[in-house]
Each structure stands twice: as structure tokens, then as C-alpha cells.
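Task: sequence design from structure.
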């Protein structure tokens, strides 16, 4: 328990700054996903307009539809990872070697 607290404190230390990678190695899955994400963000779509409540729609219905959609997408992602990542093959959940 003390080790977990110490790791938590080190992770959120005030004098530390998270510095994400500037780029990804060409040809890797991360590179391709990053490229697709940037393309969708730079496609000229106004995200504020996309998520606005359509005229005449009930806000609770609008939220419910999107919550279910979000759940389904997360469930699909989990199902994909679950098949390949077990306690034996992935003892520590991480996005890389560190």
C-alpha cells in the first residue's frame, strides 16, 4: 500500500511534467492511428455543431442514444483486447514498455 502511495505521489509530482512523444515511427499502428485522428480533426468538421441537440429532440433521449453508442464502442474495444490480452500475456496494462 505504501509503495502504491509513493508511486502515485511521484506520478503527480508538481515538479514533473508529462511530455508526450512528438511523433510516431512510420509504418507502425500508432503512426497510422495518429494520422487518421489528425485527418478527422483537420477535416473542417465543426464538432460543436455535430454534437448539438437537434431542434425538437428531447435532451434526455439525445443523451441516452449517445451513452448507449459510447458503451457499444467501448465494449467492442474491450472485446478486441480481451481476446489477446490475458493475465499471462499482459500482466501489466500499459501502452508500451514504460
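Answer:
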Amino acid at each position: 500500500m505504501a509503495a502504491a502511495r509513493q508511486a502515485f505521489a511521484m506520478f503527480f509530482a508538481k515538479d514533473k511534467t508529462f511530455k508526450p512523444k512528438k511523433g510516431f515511427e512510420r509504418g507502425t499502428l500508432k503512426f497510422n492511428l495518429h494520422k487518421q485522428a489528425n485527418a478527422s480533426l483537420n477535416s473542417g468538421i465543426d464538432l460543436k455543431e455535430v454534437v448539438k441537440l437537434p431542434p425538437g429532440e428531447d435532451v434526455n433521449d439525445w443523451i441516452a442514444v449517445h451513452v448507449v453508442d459510447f458503451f457499444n464502442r467501448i465494449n467492442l474495444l474491450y472485446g478486441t483486447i480481451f481476446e489477446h490480452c490475458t493475465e499471462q500475456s499482459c500482466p501489466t496494462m500499459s501502452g508500451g514498455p514504460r
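Residues 57-90 form one domain.
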